[in-house]
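Re: beginner question about structure tokens

> Can someone show what the tokenized structure looks like for a real chain? I only ever see the sequence side.

Sure, here's an example I had lying around. Input first:
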Amino acid sequence: MDAILERCAGLDIHQDNVVACFLYGSLDKKPSKEIETFGTTTDELIRLLDWLQDRECVHVAMESTGVYWKPVW
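And the corresponding structure tokens:
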């Protein structure tokens, strides 16, 4: 699969936490990654937002079962 974004994130959303994986780097090389776990309280979701903004990440994909994605959206 060809890379089309130089920076993006994937979120795995659970009832008690959100695991975020941020991928970044040149499109012609294997990307670097950072993984961080956040809680689901308002303060933790704001910390997630800040973490993504600090990395200038504007493309995010979410995976969630049930309705746990709603507060993140």
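Each token stands for a local structural state, so reading them left to right follows the chain. Helices lie at 42-54.
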